[in-house]
């Protein structure tokens, strides 16, 4: 099944403020973190939802394995 694609502008609206969805992108895949207690109001430590966080993972205390538990909603174009 092919993933729905979204632009960076569409992703930016899913920041926990403008729309109820809280989405983040990593390596071209968009994940829904709306239900995560770690992403309340679209913020996770110094990171904001609605963005591609691929570059920021290098500073994280966890590996990319955390994304395996998240719901995939689409691809970033």
Furnish the topology, listing elements before pairings.
Elements: E1 5-6, H1 8-13, E2 23-26, E3 29-32, E4 43-44, E5 47-48, E6 71-76
Parallel strand pairs: 1-6
Antiparallel strand pairs: 2-3, 3-6, 4-5
Give an account of the 3D structure.
This protein is mostly beta strands and 77 residues long. 8% of the residues lie in helices and 26% in strands. The protein is built from 1 helix and 6 strands. The chain has one helix spanning 8-13; strands at residues 5-6, 23-26, 29-32, 43-44, 47-48, 71-76. The strands form 2 sheets. The protein has a 4-stranded mixed beta sheet with strand order 1-6-3-2. A hairpin with a 2-residue loop joins strand 2 (23-26) and strand 3 (29-32). The radius of gyration is 11 Å and the shape is globular. It starts with a strand and ends with a strand. The model has no long low-confidence stretch (mean pLDDT 95).
How do you describe this structure in short?
The protein has about 80 residues and is mainly beta. Helices cover about 10% and strands about 25% of the residues.
- Give the helix tally: 1
Q: Give the low-confidence spans.
A: none
**Overall pLDDT:** 95
Instruction: Give the termini distance in whole angstroms.
Output: 17 Å
User: Secondary-structure element sequence?
Assistant: EHEEEEE
Which value, in Å, is the CA radius of gyration?
A: 11 Å
- Large-scale geometry: globular
Neighbour order of strands in the largest sheet: 1-6-3-2
């Amino acid at each position: 099944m092919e993933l729905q694609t979204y632009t960076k502008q569409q992703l930016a609206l899913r920041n926990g403020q403008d729309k109820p969805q809280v989405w983040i992108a990593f390596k071209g895949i968009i994940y829904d973190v709306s239900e995560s207690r770690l992403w309340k109001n679209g913020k996770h430590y110094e990171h904001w939802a609605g963005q591609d966080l691929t570059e920021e993972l290098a500073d994280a205390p966890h590996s990319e394995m955390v994304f395996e538990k998240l719901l995939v909603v689409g691809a970033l174009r």
